[in-house]
Specification:
Elements lengths: L14 H15 L8 H11 L5 H11 L10 E6 L2 E13 L4 E13 L9 E9 L16 E3 L2
Antiparallel strand pairs: 1-2, 1-5, 2-3, 3-4
Length: about 150
C-alpha cells in the first residue's frame, strides 16, 4: 500500500488560507434553521477542492509547501544576469501562497550588470524572488533566468 497523497491538478493554498475560506463558507451557508459547524465547513471545502475529507486536504496542503533553498548567512554561488557570483544570504521572506521567497544577496565581488563595453554598472547587493529550486521567474532578454543558484 502506498503512502503517497493523490493531489488534484489544482493549486492548493496554505492551511491558514484554507481555514479562512472555510470560515467564509460557514458564514455564507449558515442559515438560522440549519446552522453548520466549522468542521462541516472544512469538510465542504475539502469536497470543493476534490478531496474526500479535511484530513486529506490538509495533508495535500502541507505536501505542496516548498522550502526555501537557502538560509540566512549561507554562502551561495550561481549566475546573476549571466555573470557568475558568490554571495552571502542577508535576508529571506516568504511570499504567501506562491511558494516563492524574496532573498537578499550580498555579492563577495560586485557584479557588472551591463553588457556594453563602453560603460559598467556594478551591483553588490540584490534582492530577487526565487522559487524552491533557487531560480527566478523573471528572465533576461535572452530568455535565461535573471538569477540562478548553483544547487
Amino acid at each position: 500500500m502506498s503512502n503517497s497523497i493523490s493531489v488534484p491538478n489544482i493549486s492548493i493554498p496554505n492551511i491558514s488560507v484554507l481555514k479562512k475560506q472555510a470560515a467564509l463558507l460557514r458564514a455564507e451557508k449558515n442559515l438560522p434553521a440549519h446552522p453548520i459547524s466549522h468542521s462541516r465547513a472544512l469538510e465542504l471545502l475539502s469536497h470543493k477542492y476534490g478531496f474526500k475529507d479535511w484530513n486529506c486536504l490538509r495533508a495535500a496542503a502541507k505536501a505542496s509547501v516548498k522550502k526555501c533553498p537557502v538560509s540566512i548567512g549561507e554562502q551561495v554561488s550561481g549566475l546573476y544576469l549571466g555573470q557568475p557570483f558568490k554571495a552571502h544570504v542577508k535576508s529571506i521572506s516568504e511570499i504567501a501562497i506562491s511558494n516563492r521567497f524574496r532573498v537578499s544577496f550580498h555579492f563577495s565581488d560586485p557584479v557588472d550588470v551591463v553588457t556594453f563595453e563602453s560603460f559598467s554598472s556594478f551591483r553588490q547587493r540584490v534582492t530577487c524572488t526565487v522559487n524552491h529550486e533557487g531560480v527566478t521567474d523573471e528572465k533576461t532578454s535572452n530568455g535565461k533566468p535573471q538569477l540562478q543558484l548553483n544547487m
